[in-house]
Amino acid sequence: MSFFQPVLPEHASRLLNHGPTILITSRSRDGGQRNVMTAAWSTPVEFTPARIAIVVDKSTLSRTLIEESGVFGICVPTAAFIDTAYAVGSVSGREEEKFSRFRIAAQAGAQTGVPLIEAGCAAWLECRLLPEAGAQEKYDTCFGEVLSAAADTRVFNSGRWHFTLENRALHSIHHLGGGQFVLSGEAVQAKPL
């Protein structure tokens, strides 16, 4: 049973605006090869249409696949998925197929065909690479336009995150370095002054 529901385009940037560690998924143009990597650097850069910046080293298999296919996925791993998220960031996709090695279930995105991970993740976004951004040839930063997004309604609904003690296993993770992570914490509501 999936708890994922579509997220409105105007709320897609909220899936990343709290700075979580992410999984970047990619596929070859023909879909015969796929990869997943862990990244700590991503950010929303525009609201409408929703656009995202990610950092993917030019020497990685993920970068090769993203540039070849023109698409990528972003999945937001949860506290329950920390070990797997760390593991896929510690192995090269050029050496082995990480989805098989780490037994990660994924379905092909309806818009792009990129692998999308729901089990162990709180949200995903399908993105189209924006080559017109220009910086991709020189830098490791890639820009993408969000084509579709979905999130687990147990932790993201009504256009925002709902982190509670009861759904702690679904909280996003934030990498501090050396395999150490912190979880998204208690939400506090601002009051009008």
List its salient traits.
mainly beta; 14 strands; oxidoreductase activity, acting on the CH-NH group of donors, NAD or NADP as acceptor; 193 residues; Flavin reductase like domain-containing protein; Pnp Oxidase, Chain A; two-stranded antiparallel ribbon; Flavoredoxin
Write a concise synopsis of the structure shown.
This is Flavin reductase like domain-containing protein. With 193 residues, this protein is mostly beta strands. The strands form 4 sheets. Strands 1, 2, 3, 4, 5, 6, 9 and 10 form an 8-stranded antiparallel sheet that branches. A two-stranded antiparallel ribbon has the order 7-8. A two-stranded antiparallel ribbon has the order 11-12.
Which secondary structure elements does this structure contain, and how are they paired or packed?
Layout: E1 4-6, E2 22-27, E3 34-39, E4 42-46, E5 51-55, H1 61-69, E6 71-77, H2 82-88, H3 98-101, E7 107-108, E8 115-116, E9 121-129, E10 141-152, E11 156-157, E12 160-161, E13 173-177, E14 180-183
Antiparallel strand pairs: 1-10, 2-3, 2-6, 4-5, 5-10, 6-9, 7-8, 9-10, 11-12, 13-14
Organism: Chimaeribacter californicus
Family: Belongs to the flavoredoxin family.
Keywords: Flavoprotein
What does this structure look like?
The chain has 193 residues and is mostly beta strands. The protein has one domain (4-183): Roll (Pnp Oxidase, Chain A). The chain is 10% helix and 36% strand. The protein contains 3 helices and 14 strands. It has helices at 61-69, 82-88, 98-101, and strands spanning 4-6, 22-27, 34-39, 42-46, 51-55, 71-77, 107-108, 115-116, 121-129, 141-152, 156-157, 160-161, 173-177, 180-183. Strands 1, 2, 3, 4, 5, 6, 9 and 10 form an 8-stranded antiparallel sheet that branches. The protein has a two-stranded antiparallel ribbon with strand order 7-8. It has a two-stranded antiparallel sheet with strand order 11-12. The protein is globular, with a radius of gyration of 16 Å. The termini are far apart. 40% of the residues are buried. The mean pLDDT is 92. It holds the Pfam family Flavin_Reduct. It comes from Chimaeribacter californicus. Its cofactor is FMN.
